[in-house]
Amino acid sequence: MSRRSHAxxxxxxxxxxxxxxFLNLMVILIPFLLITAVFTRVTxxxxxxxxxxxxxxxxxxxxNVEVIVRKNKLQLGNGRSIIANIPNIxxxxxxxxxxxxxxxxxxxxxxxxxxxxxxEPSVEYRYLVQIMDALRGTDPQxxxxxxxxxxxxxxxxxxxxxxxx
Length: 165
Known about the structure:
Structural class: alpha/beta
């Protein structure tokens, strides 16, 4: 008889769930995830593979802008020869000089949009990003108030990456 009364007593009262521990965890976890999500930023650089040596369209310019990144210098080429050698200054690449030369090229070939970066295997990735930024464009000079004196200059935004010869 005790079994029957015990079985009836169990079915009358459903067990209560204690969710306070779970709620305490959520109170701590949700603000932590929201705070750390602010600092997470994904940056995607769009890259193209260098074009093969096939026939080119007639409406494109007859120059190929190439920046060859060597361990001790940068070389600016036109696809057939080296236009300029830019030596390192105090073991740093002279990105400013490269930018000036690229601006001169853009003045001569304003319709040209694509370029190629060829790197030696021993060059660090951060230099690739700096050179790609210089190829994409330059920021305008600042006036005496610290405001931009003009629009951003777009140079060669379509960048292909490859290994240096």
